Amino acid sequence: MTNGWLGVLGAAGLLAALGLVFVAVPAPPPAGGAPAAPRLAALASPAQVPMPAARPPVAPPRRVPAALAPAAPAELDRVVAAARLGDRRAGYAAYRLLSPCAEAACPGVPLTLVNERLRFLAEAARAGVAGAQVDFFLEGPDAVQAADGEGLQAWREQALGGLKDAAAQCEPFAMGQLATLLDAGELTPRDAIAAVAYAVAEGQLRHRPPSDESLRDRLGEPIADADLEAARVRGLGLVAACR
After folding, report:
1. 88, 103 in Cβ contact below 8 A?
2. If we measure between CA atoms, which residue out of 102, 105, 104, 95 comes closest to residue 64?
3. Does residue 191 contact residue 182 with C-beta atoms inside 8 Å?
4. Chain centroid, CA 85 distance in Å
5. What is the secondary structure of 94-111 as a DSSP string?
6. What is the mean pLDDT of residues 205-232?
7. This protein's superkingdom (predicted)?
8. Which residue of 2, 11, 67, 83 has the smallest Cβ count within 10 Å?
9. How far, in Å, CA of 113 to CA of 94, rounded?
10. Could you give the 3-state DSSP secondary structure of residue 82?
11. From the centroid of its chain, how far is CA 156?
């Protein structure tokens, strides 16, 4: 009996050195009914135990804009004064300076001025400032416009017209947005050929001409070869005509 235990323990020591952990479990009794030496059952070593999947990293908090730099208030005062006198490019500049203050309060900047930035943006977009036309679309309708059918329709018309005007000024982001909107039928009825044309134009302006395969992939529905070719020619024309 002693020799049996020594053999078992010696084997256990050897296998433990190989990275396995053992526990003793009772063995079934032999036919004669005499107790048998316990068997050793191997448990996986820590290296062999499947570890739970790593938790995804916690997203960093949204960056809070820093307080206005010492020179910023003077610049803000300048562009706001110019915007109120009708300078639409200054109005767009004021919108951009004030936008971080809509996310977190900026010392010395009143809420009324922060809210006025949207008026500056709308006026700049109507005046044809390309960046303002893109941001007007990205801002979306305000709560009053969204709740009013006529107001929402007016916003849609200005947003769509602004994107087209910005695209005509060689704004690639506007080209890409129009490609998506025209394919999805948002703000305007679906037009696959126009959608592909704007996608082609965006790719040309970004110096990444799209392949036929990539153009087909971005469409929600199939497009005929002839229509794809016509759209490509139209897109190249958009680039040639933009200013």
Report:
1. no
2. 104
3. yes
4. 37
5. HHHHHHHHHHSPPTT--H
6. 93
7. Bacteria
8. 2
9. 10
10. helix
11. 23
